[in-house]
Design goal:
Blueprint: H1 5-11, E1 12-13, E2 17-21, E3 24-28, H2 32-38, E4 56-61, E5 65-75, E6 81-88, E7 91-99, E8 105-106, E9 109-112, E10 115-120, E11 126-131, E12 137-144, E13 152-153, E14 158-164, H3 180-188, E15 190-194, E16 217-221, H4 230-248, E17 253-256, H5 262-268, H6 275-286, E18 292-295, H7 316-330
Helix pairs in contact: 3-7, 4-6
Length: 334
């Protein structure tokens, strides 16, 4: 039983929608209106709007297998692998990982072969979460359960829209399901819309007026990037929050302060705006808006280098700590 567009849209999480393109399906995070409002056509950030960090299908079935075929796959990333995960009844049961080493490189990054895999599922009715690669631009050729299998999309208790940079996009994790956003989604039973783009900063044009799905609350996690130009950072950050307030002023919103990292501390010794000063400014700006709550991201990831892939981005271990702490903070409000 091949899942159709209606079924895919009913079960999708992490992105607003699934769309059909020439007989194939795509998980779409950004519409063209959104991506070209924020980015110029030649921007190196543009390909990052086509990947799907946190993108998954979430449903209940009695089927004994799940067949997946992805095609037209590209990966513009410094990370050297990509993978898919399957969870059953809250347990990670499958992880398939592929190397990018030696693959040809085109204008959109690595050119990947077709990905095709059949996951075995346990007997009986179970909740299945199928996580797509977090760093790949792909299209779905087929998602299929055995003929006659049941299919019931998961309905979540709430809806959370997220804006952020490479940490929220999980740019340096091997397991797509172990980034903090999927863990947060499961822990708090939230349908999520992840608009994170690696390298992004506080700036007004990241807010595209009137284009977002309805959500109960908003999570914001910028601040580390852009500090090499302190004056521009100090101008862009309040402008972002003014635009944010115009768009989301009627929603509760939670702003995560930048995390600690060894690389950021090294940058602080040069011409960068120090992280502690950036945190102070964010707190000061957020205090002007009644709907904003500041979360202390500095405590989220241990200072041990074992928690980072490159001294800046949390790896899977760092993400586990990040998730544990942000979930504990947000549980007070959900």
């Amino acid at each position: 039983m091949k899942l159709n567009l209606e079924q895919l849209n009913a079960a999708v999480d992490g992105v607003p929608e699934v769309v059909e393109e020439s007989g194939l399906f795509r998980l779409r995070r950004f519409t063209d209106e959104q991506r070209f409002y924020t980015y110029e056509p030649e921007s190196p950030f543009l390909p990052r709007t086509y990947i799907t960090p946190g993108g998954k299908l979430d449903f209940t079935t009695d089927g004994g297998s799940l067949a997946v075929t992805l095609t037209e796959c590209f990966a513009k990333t410094s990370f050297k692998s990509y993978g898919m995960d399957v969870w059953q009844d809250g347990v990670l049961t499958h992880h398939v990982e592929k190397s990018l080493e030696g693959l040809p490189v085109g204008a959109w990054g690595y050119v990947l072969p077709e990905f095709s895999h059949t996951f075995s599922l346990k007997e009986g009715v179970k909740r299945v979460e199928l996580f797509f690669p977090r760093n790949v631009n792909y299209k779905i050729q087929e998602i299929a359960l055995p003929d006659g299998a049941s299919f019931e999309p998961t309905v979540h208790a709430g809806r959370l829209l997220v804006l952020g940079d490479s940490i929220t996009a999980a740019c340096n994790t091997r397991f797509p399901s172990l980034a903090y956003m999927p863990l947060l989604s499961r822990a708090l039973d939230l349908r999520t819309f992840n608009y994170a783009v690696g390298g992004e900063v506080y700036r007004e044009k990241t807010i595209v007026p009137g284009t977002y799905p309805d959500a109960d609350a908003i999570l914001v996690a910028y601040g580390t990037n852009g500090r090499k130009n302190p004056e521009r950072w100090k101008t862009n950050t309040p402008a972002f929050f003014e635009a944010f307030h115009r768009e989301f002023g009627d929603k509760p919103a939670y702003v995560i302060l930048p995390i600690h990292s060894r690389k950021a501390l090294t940058q602080d010794q040069a011409e960068f705006l120090p992280l502690e000063e950036a945190r102070r400014i964010i707190r000061e700006i957020c205090a002007k808006y009644d709907n904003l709550t500041v979360l202390d991201g500095e405590k989220y990831v241990p200072w041990d280098d074992a928690c980072f892939d490159d001294g800046l981005h949390p790896n899977d271990l760092g993400m586990a700590h990040y998730a544990m702490n942000v979930i504990a903070d947000l549980k007070k409000y959900f």
